[in-house]
Amino acid sequence: MRYLFLFLIGFSTVSSAQNAMISSLKESPVNGGLEMKDYWVWESSVIKGDDGNYHMYGSRWPKILPFHPGWMLGSEIVKATSKTPEDPYKFKEVVLGERGSQFWDGKHVIILK
User: Fold this and answer.
1) pTM of the complete model
2) How far apart are CA 88 and CA 85, in angstroms?
3) 8 Å CB contact between 59 and 76
């Protein structure tokens, strides 16, 4: 019974935190994020850098591949930056591209050159 009580206390704390987070969400900006004409861009994560800019890391793959299974066959990790979290992000570089089948992430990559 003691464990059930502790579980319920922990569950109510998590629920309060989740409710606070949900109530603070706002609409997404229409032109925010990263868009690349010839690429699908997916699964991005953003961090604020020491330079005051926002750095987005995400995966992309060419639109000549269908969304599925293209994400498994041609993904690479890219970096983009923005001055604010809401502004459009500008592509900077490929962080992790095709590396070959000797690496764990190179088993499904196809060469498109």
Assistant:
1) 0.67
2) 8
3) yes
Q: Look at residue 107 in the predicted model and tell me its pLDDT.
A: 59
Output the six-digit token pair for 41: 């861009």
In Å, what is the CA distance from 99 to each residue of 8, 38, 42, 103?
A: 48, 21, 20, 7
Strand 90-96 with 54-62, pairing: unpaired
SS3 letters across the chain: CHHHHHHHHHHHHHHHHHHHHHHCCCCCCCCCECCCCCEEEEEEEEEECCCCCEEEEEEEEECCCCHHHHHHHHCEEEEEEECCCCCECEEEEEEECCCCCCCHHHCCCCCCC
Distance between CA atoms of residues 111 and 91, nearest Å = 21
Summary mean pLDDT of the chain = 81
